[in-house]
Design brief:
The chain is built from 9 helices and 13 strands. The protein has helices spanning 5-13, 35-45, 61-66, 72-81, 115-124, 144-151, 190-195, 262-277, 295-305; strands at 18-20, 27-31, 54-56, 86-91, 106-110, 128-129, 171-176, 179-184, 201-202, 223-225, 235-239, 252-255, 283-286. The protein is globular. The model has no long low-confidence stretch (mean pLDDT 94). It binds adenosine monophosphate and magnesium ion.
Amino acid sequence: MYISISKASNILKSGGIVAIPTETVYGLAGNALDEIVIAKIFAAKERPFFDPLIVHIAEFEELENLVAEIPKNAKLLAEKFWPGPLTLVLPKKKIVPDLTTGGLQTVAVRMPKKQIAKDIIKQAGFPLAAPSANMFQHLSPTTAEHVMEQLGGKIDGIVDGGTCEVGIESTVIGFENEIPVIYRPGAITGEMIEDIGYKVRSIEAGHPSPGLLDKHYSPSTLLCLGLPDEVPHNSGLLAFGKLPANSERFAKILNLSESGDSTEAAANLYAALHKLDSFRLGRIFAMRLPETGLGNAINDRLSRAGK
Ligand code: AMP
Ligand code: MG
């Protein structure tokens, strides 16, 4: 099941699907331009067809083959944040199958930073669709073992690249009259984009970013965002920073970052949720992070995990 980079590229070339590490989370990769392969990805994840996939490239030039138009601001953001955890939504060319984009006329594209991911894309010779390598709505994988638990046996192999450095999904950005609009908060924050002189808008309710479902990223154990006044028996705590006064009442505590660092917290988020999920707790309470740095993206995941 665990395979080398060159074996993975060969499997991809013959129309298979393999899990690969990226700096955000592990992706379930397949040829983004082959409808049959894309159908296999949706089937393995049991993901609904309306939820579009992100297409991964290794060189900027590959973007021109996929999209009909590159707005000036998209190019500038790509120059600044690629390779890295930023996904750009742009008008698609015909070559990108409708199945890849959930029927939308736009395609989401990203250039990952992790060398293993780039090597696999280059060796395969085509862009890779790579949604997170987990069952639909479940916890995203940040280690090869997480992938094995959820998808082992349903896919053609897993490339083990250790723990994902960033640990939280990419920021998805579209453009409305050249203005960047955040469709999904992620590892590149609104402040980081504003710091380089852009105005950004956050997504408004009803905007067509189909993957922003209420329930997503969920452990099997019931998860509540925020702290209870009375801690129920057999509860777990996903903490951040200083522990609350009633912390000794929790059966298990995992702290995402004792020093209150949201970047460290993002890197630990999914592994901590996988771990708490394995303790057969009655409930998990998650402390809400301050909305600075990656706090916003983490709170977004935790609120969906709790639905
Ligand atoms: P992931 O599940 O991490 O692969 O991310 C896919 C998510 O990116 C989708 O669920 C959407 O929220 C977003 N996305 C992908 N393609 C598009 C698109 N064409 N337009 C708007 N949002 C998109
Ligand atoms: Mg996902």
